[in-house]
Amino acid sequence: MLVAPRGLGVPVQDVVILDPEDPPETHPGDLVLVIGARGRSAAAAIRAAGRAGAAAVAVKGEGGTDVAADAGVALLTVGAEARWEQVEALARGVVDAARAGGEAETGEVLGDLFALAQTVATLTGGLVSIEDTASRVLAYSRAGDEVDELRRLSILGREGPERYLAILREWGVYQRLRAGEGIVRVDERPELGIRRRIAAGIHAGSQPLGTIWVQEGAQPLTGQAEVALLGASRTLAPQLIRARTRPDPQLRLREDLLAGLLEGRVDAESVADDIGADPARPAQVLAFTLSRQQSSAASDRLLHRAELVHLIAVHTAAYRRTALVSVLGGRVYALLPDLPEHSAAPVLALAKEIVGAARKHLDAPVRAALGGIVPRLSDAALSRGDADRVLLAMTRGHWPSDVASLADVRADVLLSEVLAYLGDQPRLRDPRLAQLRAHDADHGDILIPAVLAYLNAFGDVRTAARSLNIHPNTVRYRVRRASEVSGIDLTDPAQRLLTELLLRL
């Protein structure tokens, strides 16, 4: 936001794209996206939008604030790397969601619902819609094939058509949805224009908040559709509560709870009380990260991460009702409280399931690291630290799998800890290795690689020679020469161990 002459309470009615070369077709309340002009070169388009009563104008680049202030229209700047079609899709999704939400004060929470609906659609293989308790449509997945009459009329009318609602009430569908958790199945009724669908009620305790529906399209629903739907119904509850009671989009309670717990800003008892967990039960933190090769554009990476957050939330909520998910430092963390004493195998399977789903549905390579199980919720930060170290070890050691636990890479993690300690303690370093480094720098850097290969091969010169693609006699000569230059006796176990650690450092 660069300037807002009429304040931030101006309603947005629609989103339009304007090319400065085209005649302006702007109406009151429009959010105008000006393409093809940057900064001050968009002045004419800004003035035209102001005369038409537009709510705001978005341009790339800075400048034009004086023009916008004189025209009485808000001016926003868009990042140079953003694609206009993405900006339009995001903005239109928020406006459509706010319009569908009626009583909501902001569209951001409901915009998140559209993203979650699409995530559930990919996991279930169906067509998803989210409704409140009055059967008003809050969000829905993108249109697909084989949309039945019930879904078509619900989307068009922004609420379930009364004729169909009466049928569902007669069948007892809503009674079962409001009764509690669980999947409700509705069989196909071609004569009524109803295809097969499954649904789950969204609840806060015993209070119903809404319903999430999955209609079967041309293909059958996936084998994990009901599990994904159950997880989504639990994930949606705090979002719908927030939409009702906390219109400020900055108040993302559950995400902040986990971030505060892991960073030591919030005590475990407060978190446990808020999510209904037992602070004295074991807990575990999982860390997920997107591969940096996945996307060259920052905007694409952010979109992938948002989808990943939804996917993780759906899966972890199905596993543990009290699970929390948040993003910290570019990584997505999931907290699993209230764990049984022996839960390592199920959690490992859960992590593999999430990584597999991300690869299949999001086309995003993801790494997952399991922190150690800690005895109580207050130790969650320790589990988070373990998970971070596991991710680092996976990256440095080129771990063959996308999922690893602390037990899998414990040696690499401990070695990293030792090297970090040595790095912070210069007085523990052997000065003879500094001499060897200086000599190597002046003579082609050939001695240290030979020594490291020799030590890694446990003194087997043939194995070391193969790793360096040189003759075994060359390895023998270079190792002997390194000992002469440095004065280090590699036949002494203590000197050999310290030399390897310091050379790795």
From TrEMBL:
Q: Which InterPro entries does the record match to this protein?
A: CdaR-like_regulators (IPR051448), PucR_C-HTH_dom (IPR025736), PucR_C-HTH_sf (IPR042070)
Q: Write down the superkingdom of origin.
A: Bacteria
Where the record annotates domain PucR C-terminal helix-turn-helix, the positions are: 449-504
> What is the name of this protein?
PucR family transcriptional regulator
According to the entry, what is the taxonomic lineage of the organism?
A: Bacteria, Bacillati, Actinomycetota, Actinomycetes, Pseudonocardiales
